[in-house]
Amino acid sequence: GNSVTQMEGPVTLSEEAFLTINCTYTATGYPSLFWYVQYPGEGLQLLLKATKADDKGSNKGFEATYRKETTSFHLEKGSVQVSDSAVYFCALLDTGRRALTFGSGTRLQVQP
Amino acid sequence: DGGITQSPKYLFRKEGQNVTLSCEQNLNHDAMYWYRQDPGQGLRLIYYSQIVNDFQKGDIAEGYSVSREKKESFPLTVTSAQKNPTAFYLCASSISGGNTEAFFGQGTRLTVV
Predict the structure, then answer these.
(1) DSSP A70
(2) Which residues of A touch B90 (CB under 8 A)?
(3) Residues near B108 by Cβ (< 8 Å), separated by ≥ 6?
(4) How far apart are CA B112 and CA B106, in angstroms?
(5) What is the pLDDT of residues A39-73, one digit of tens each?
(6) What is the pLDDT of residues B67-91, one digit of tens each?
(7) Among the listed residues B21, B94, B46, the one whose alpha carbon sits nearest the alpha carbon of residue A44
(8) Is B96 in Cβ contact with A98 (below 8 Å)?
(9) Chain B within 8 Å of A46 (Cβ-Cβ)?
């Protein structure tokens, strides 16, 4: 079946550092890929998405490129802020049942 | 404002009692979903519905039940058969078909004592 694997956290960075959170997936075909962000005690918010190979999703300085050769969708940001501290989830859209399959999440802590 | 409303935000129940979590959306979405989140884990799919009066089991449906009598509403009942019901429950909705994202509610934290 489909699955998503994310790097384990927490990831602790200083403000203005470069961020990479790795995400790889296993799926049949080429599913749409997503990054969601969750702030403490809240639901998930869509951060960015990519619907086909080589697409780059971007939002609020975050970027991720859909790489079908490596089945990856790594999240990057050039300069993190304290306000980016949250849990980040990588997900794919299961084309069979049309529901999202999530990775286990990666907690990011940004220190001033 | 359009969105998904889950209520209540916090819920406490005694062991052995059934409890129903509410989820309402005014986005005119056909598809709705229930996920469970445990500490340090990702979201796991409980039930989903692509259209009114139809729903399917997800990966962890045992001990849960749902109904979809109206497009706007997808309540989840946590029954006494659910072995470990304490968790954070998230409801989501999306446009059915296509490659669109899901929109999430703020969640309900259920604690069974």
Answers:
(1) T
(2) 43-44
(3) B6, B7, B8, B9, B10, B11, B21, B88, B89
(4) 20
(5) 988 899 999 999 999 999 999 999 999 999 999 99
(6) 999 999 999 999 999 999 999 999 9
(7) B94
(8) yes
(9) yes
